[in-house]
Amino acid sequence: MTGSILEGQMNVELASDYYLTNFKELIEYIGSTYTDLLSSEERGFLLIFSQLPRESQMLYIRMLTRKGEWFRARKLNYQEIPDLFGAVTSLEKSDLVQVYPAKSMLPLAAVIGLFTKAEWLLQLKFCGIDTASLKTLKRAALEERIFELAEHHSALSYFENEILFCLKGSAVFDTFKLLYFGNQHQDLTEFVLRDLGHYRYEDYLINRDTRSFQDKSQLQAHQHYYAIIEPLEEVLLQSKAEIIALVEQLPATPQSDRLLDRRIQSVKLRLARQLERLDAPQQALLIYQQCNIPPARERSARIFVKQQRIDEGLNLCREIIAQPRSEAEQQFGEGFGYRTARKHKLDWQAPSNYKPPRRTLTLTPTGAGVEVDVACYFSQNGECHFVENDLFSSLFGLLYWEVIFAPVKGAFTNPFQIRPHDLHEPDFLTQRQAVFSQANHALLSQELLNDAITSRWTEKFGIANYFVNWSWIDEALIHTALARIPLPHLKAIFQRIWQDIRANCSGFPDLILLTDTGYELIEVKGPGDTLQANQLRWMRYFHQQNIPHRVVYVEFDSLG
DNA sequence: ACCGAGCACTCAATA
DNA sequence: AGTTCTTCTG
DNA sequence: TATTGAGTGCTCCAGAAGAAC
Ligand SMILES: [Mn+2]
Ligand SMILES: [Mn+2]
To answer: A99, A155, A303, A559 — which has fewest CB within 10 A?
Structure first.
């Protein structure tokens, strides 16, 4: 079961101007829905670009989708752009590309990345520098050395035979991408992957009169955020001072734009967590106090207790228990509060301590993975499949397909969404009451459910859906599973997913064993592995709902 | 990947 | 001189 | 010995060509 689910439709040929078509589709959307948020430069771009010769448009996009802003003309070889210099001339006139003829003097930082190590060593030799000691340096070290040497050898960034292009206006396109996708991680490759058949997206209704960004200040807030976190990964590797400096740049939280708020808080949590590692708990605490998403309070409580501020730690646990933001957080408050209180001889209610049914199994490893080995072992009792989260999540996604893709205002703004924008909002279902209750009709009988899910399966096969993993679940398995799992069990499981989609799509047991008479959900634990908190929460729920489940602890017998 | 998620593996510190 | 990483492509 | 917590690694188009090691 490897490779893409859509492998069958290989040999898709894209039109030779595919990237121009895609680019035009993107900016057409910007022009039709966002002109009022654009700067004059951005509006100007739309106009100027539309008037460029076709090959100039194509060259511009080629450059946009390559790395960096500086290019050697000789490295831009495209058969669909036979007259490179003709194409670039219009771009230069429109101020979208700056052309630097050979023998120009350029800042070293601009050109350092354009040449290979071998080329730089040659250049160094031309400048009369002895390269013997430089040849063994790694790329990064060599670049450093070149910068030092350039102080006294200005000719290092002088090239006899290189025409260079510098791309302008890439920030404008960044804005367009952000407006189009609503984020900064999707780009033009989405079009290609879709058209190649790697992904297929649901044909949901995109409301042209609803959009992700309502006004300019909202757009600017998102851009500001992305600009600040640009060095995030680097800063996380640096020391306290740099991390704190980055946090201080971030806007105050919580804030009213919920999407942006979550992004900012997630970054704050990461930075604070790193401050903990760097032994700066006080500063971490200050950041956690600006956040209301988990695990901000959990981390704070841990810090308090570590600092022997037991009262404050326990008070925070009480707050968590009184108003948990998730079951996970509640479970933490109860457990950590109990352990801490007990250690200090204080009163605290013991948390529920469910122990799921267990058995141990001794077998010889085949190398395919413990879960597969155990599934193999249980095959003597029936069909046993390694499904983890995929089975129930996929059933959920199939049953509630129409709910997920219902044309609610603002839910869909571009053709590359695997879910509606507001999937995790608390009012998600109240916005979709009618489709929701209609989907639930299928839960009235086994036959209706079977029909609903299998017809959805054939109708939607391969279409991207947040909940459905097409590559791991086959139709036969769905069929048997639906026949064996009683309706009340499925209802209970789906209900818990709806309660907290983000948290409850994970933690399902590894295996499902389907026997002649029924089924069982089995979590496999190899030596040294233990139940994770989310796995235990599901099992506690299974217990309450009489859903058959078990943990199988594996010991290996061949290892001396 | 909506600036990681989800899982198992490994190790160390507790009780 | 073979292997691994990066970049580009459709 | 079991439990807890922390940190790590793996995968997320696929394949080609070039560059780095
Ligand atoms: Mn598992
Ligand atoms: Mn397992």
So the answer is: A559
Tell me the CA–C1' distance in angstroms for A75 and C9: 15
List phi, psi (to 5°) of A24. Answer: -65, -40
| Ligand 1 geometric centre to CA of A449 (Å) | 27
A10 falls in which pLDDT band (50, 70, 90)? low
Kindly compute the dihedral angle of the four CA atoms of residues A86, A92, A97, A102, in this order, to the nearest 10 degrees: 70
The pLDDT confidence band at residue A20, using thresholds 50, 70 and 90, is: very high
| Contacts of A484 by beta carbon, 8 Å cutoff, 6+ apart | A514, A515, A518, A519
Q: Which two tokens stand for residue A186?
A: 């999707």
How large is the average pLDDT for residues A418-431?
A: 96
ipTM of the complex: 0.94
Residue with tokens 């500063």: A283
Give the residue-averaged pLDDT of A69-88. Answer: 97
CA distance A440 to A203: 22
Distance CA A67, CA A185 (A): 15
Helix (H, G, I), strand (E, B) or coil at A454: helix
Q: Which domains does chain A have, with CATH numbers?
A: 13-101+163-199 (no CATH), 109-161 (no CATH), 212-343 (1.25.40.10), 358-556 (no CATH)
pLDDT tens-digit series, residues A473-485? 788 999 999 999 9
- Single pTM value for the model: 0.94
3 state SS of A546: coil
In whole angstroms, what is the distance from residue A265 CA to residue A254 CA?
A: 8
